[in-house]
Amino acid sequence: MARIELNNIEKFFGSVQVLKNVSLTIEDGEFVVMLGQSGCGKTTMLRAIAGLETVSSGTITIDGREVQDLKAADRDIAFVFQSFSLYPHMTVEENIAFPLRAVRSSKADRVAEVKEVAKFLGIERLLPRRPSALSGGDMQRVAIGRALVRRPQALLMDEPIGALDAKLREQMRAEIKRLHIARNSTSVYVTHDQVEAMSLADRIVVMHDGVLQQVGAPNEVYLHPANLFVAQFVGSPVMNIADVAVEGSGTDALLRVGRSEGFRVPTATVSHLNGSPAKLGIRPEAVLLSREPGEGFETETTNVEPLGSHDIVDVRVGDETLRARCDSGFARGDGEKVWVTLDPARAHFFDAQTGQSLRRTA
Ligand SMILES: Nc1ncnc2c1ncn2[C@@H]1O[C@H](COP(=O)(O)OP(=O)(O)OP(=O)(O)O)[C@@H](O)[C@H]1O
Ligand SMILES: [Mg+2]
User: Fold this and answer.
1) How far is the CA of 38 from the centre of ligand 2 (A)?
2) What is the CATH number of the domain that holds 276?
3) Band of residue 84 on the pLDDT scale cut at 50, 70, 90
4) What is the CA radius of gyration of the chain?
């Protein structure tokens, strides 16, 4: 177990800066997921923690001890790589036992350790096999077993299940979570899959272009995205983002989305905006459609995506298209007349220039 602290980490490859002033504390026993697009610096950050990569500046401490100048072998951190990285000429048993070769313990103890880890991962029957005779899921189970066998202080995983099919990924996700809880290890997990991040993390770290955008519990990141990047990266389908102008005062204000005639919302929803140019962010589940004429904005459906459990319906609002999450079968096709309202409690506003969230202070 370990508490890992990153302080002002910078990393350059030549003249290209890949990590920009990264500071983060990972608590002992915590499961932290680094989430971001390809190339944003996730692997580099993980490798820096493990000691597989040097940092250009900044410090890394593990339980208060500075480790940034220590070799990987002296940090007691295990790493599961993005690609399957088993030794093909060794059996599963030998692969898992490999990190123990330097440990001064008896052969019998080593065999017992490997058996225990294999049992825990449900792969005992695979011990005599070679990696070429394993499925993708089993290969990653073996890779995880090899990482766990030394009982490391922290376990770092770099997209460990990214190469597996959807069903197996779901199953492995549950296994990794169970494993984390059982071992109570500090875990840092990298992925570009927001569903994986939401389902596994105690806290999600959203990264973009080498910069930490937001650190928070999955719900916090989903419900209160700190900026436009996070808003559009977390959640599927993505949050609707639209240009908006606010008019009026009194109890109601008018929210003109995409130069439309607008939506009436309580003034309290928008009173913190102070007239500065803003963008509206609204998730598809907060765009409410009705077939009955009412308070809402009259428009037509422009596209329907039936997804089984629900439909995603596009509607035109001024010169913007908003996507709404509806019960399946709600709309039968394009060009149907509907009335749109927005749930003001779930409306987000962002500074049009900086993209930072404009949150209500009260
Ligand atoms: N050894 C290296 N030398 C030069 N540039 C590198 C090196 N390793 C990574 N980079 C660059 O640093 C940036 C971040 O790479 P990194 O592998 O950390 O991204 P990532 O977030 O893990 O991406 P992915 O999701 O594709 O794995 C990329 O632009 C990459 O090209
Ligand atoms: Mg990577």
Assistant:
1) 7
2) 2.40.50.140
3) low
4) 25
User: What whole-number distance in Å separates Cα of residue 301 and Cα of residue 316?
Assistant: 7
Q: Which of 274, 282, 271, 278 is nearest to 353 (CA)?
A: 278
Tokens representing residue 140 in the block: 């990653």
Provide the domain count of the chain: 2
Ligand 1 atom 22: the closest Cα is on which residue? 43
Q: Is the CB of 13 under 6 A from ligand 1?
A: yes
Which of residues 233, 252, 272 is at a domain's end? 233
* 42 CA → ligand 1 middle, Å: 8
Q: Answer with the one of 175, 205, 233 that is the final residue of a domain.
A: 233
Residues in the chain: 362
CA angle 334, 339, 344 (to 5 degrees): 125
Ligand nearest to the CA of 14: 1
Residues 315 and 183 in one domain: no
Rounded distance, CA 341 to CA 326, Å?
Answer: 13
Whether 18 lines ligand 1, by a CB cut-off of 6 Å, is yes
pTM: 0.91
What is the average pLDDT score of the chain? Answer: 91
- Least reliable range by pLDDT among 96-105, 125-134, 201-210: 96-105
At residue 257, the 3 state secondary structure works out as strand
Ligand 1 centroid to residue 44 C-alpha, Å: 6
Q: Kindly identify the ligand whose nearest atom is closest to the C-alpha of 207.
A: 1
| CA dist., res. 137 & res. 22, Å (int) | 33
Question: Is residue 285 one of the residues assigned to a domain?
Answer: yes
SS3 (DSSP) at 128: coil
CB 284 within 8 A of CB 323: yes
